[in-house]
Design a protein that fits this description.
There is one protein chain. With 202 residues, this protein is α/β, with parallel strands linked by helices. 36% of the residues lie in helices and 15% in strands. It has seven helices and five strands. It has a five-stranded mixed β-sheet, with helices on both faces. Strand 4 and strand 5 form a beta hairpin. Helix 1 runs antiparallel to helix 2 (27-42). The radius of gyration is 26 Å and the shape is elongated. It starts with a helix and ends in a 9-residue tail after the last strand.
Length: 202
Amino acid sequence: MMVSLAIVVLAGYGLARLLPRIRRVWQPVAAIIVGLFVLIESWAGPLSPRLVSVTAPETYADLLRDKGDSPRVGVVRRESDSPPAVLLELPIGREDPTVMYYSTFHWQSLVNGYSGFFSPSFIDLVNRLDTFPDPSTDDVLLARGVRYVTVHGELMREGEYQRMIAAIDARPNDFRLISRRPWHHSEISLYYFFPGAGGRRP
């Protein structure tokens, strides 16, 4: 706001010096043009907020049930509660805070999140997961303790979701499908990840 104010003041000084140098008939036109430029530069369009669901996808309740927890997890973790699982939400690397919002319904640990800043290590993670679910990415997930993977069709381009789940389903020894539920004109698939165990727990 202060920068915009300074620009407007400078534009006024510039216009005051410019007007005496042009014909009297063009002076009002020049003033209108400068005024329009100031309005255009200062204009801020209305925000178009996106409606989000007040309920989470049932996929996260499936994750909690698979862990052996109650589908209704509290914000404060009790000593009797199981430790949080590490969850990878796909797609990764896009500026979308949706999965961060969903995490308030399950309180598990996320590999990916959103803060408006991507650290070098996160960018490296995104680049290394570019070929997921190729087996070459297994070590990347294991190093971060990933046990669950969700694939959000509603956040992916057309055809991208189908290719992704087909590739994951082709690895039944490494990924166990827990649930596949409809959500927002698409669906979300939830997998348990433990390579070489046929989806069984270690």
